[in-house]
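Exercise: predict the fold of this chain.
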Amino acid sequence: MIDIILNSTTKDIIMDNLSVGIYFTDEKGKTLYVNKAFEEMSLIKAKELIGKTLEELVKQKYFTASATLLVIKTKKPAAVSYITKTNRKLLARGKPFFDQSGNLKYVVNTVYDLSEVHYMGDIDYDSKQNNNNQIIAFSSQMVNIVDFALRVANVDSTVLITGESGVGKEVIAKFIHDASPRKNYPFVKVNCASIPENLIETELFGYKGGAFTGANPKGKKAFLKQLKKEQYF
């Protein structure tokens, strides 16, 4: 049934008009099909990829990682963010398809564009992020978190991320930002825990000169007022 769909005119109409990229391989990771959306977001033509395995493409530095290779190894769904040779950051969610005997037959990836247009303004914060943060997920819990984060990214709402130190809360926050309509604007991190409680108001909102004993005579510009609304929201 899959082979019939891939060889039909209907496939071209449907697959090439999806808003997400589609990357389709066989059980060995050999590229069988990529849609137009994937070509546009990766800036790589299908003819460069068809017939090549993901193992080859990773070795040739077309991609820094591959969800397909994880799926082949684990026989489970996986999610991986990676950089293409054209310096585009993408997220692939790979899903295995098995034949009636339970053998892996195909791997289908839905691919999302996480690339940023780098802001070249005059605001330079210590919180400037490393764009090479990578997500690799193959446990069902983590894949579910990635799926949920993709849905949340399109909602104009506050998001609270909780978890122990070191579990990757900031990586998920940056991932949500990269997958959202705000991705073309800076991701600004404010570590409130590092600001003394009695100074947090003056740090975030600033103060005028002489406002209190020991204050800078010139005052302090509010951190939040340095952010132009149209650039961030």
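Check your answer against the key: Residues 117-131 have pLDDT under 50 and may be disordered.
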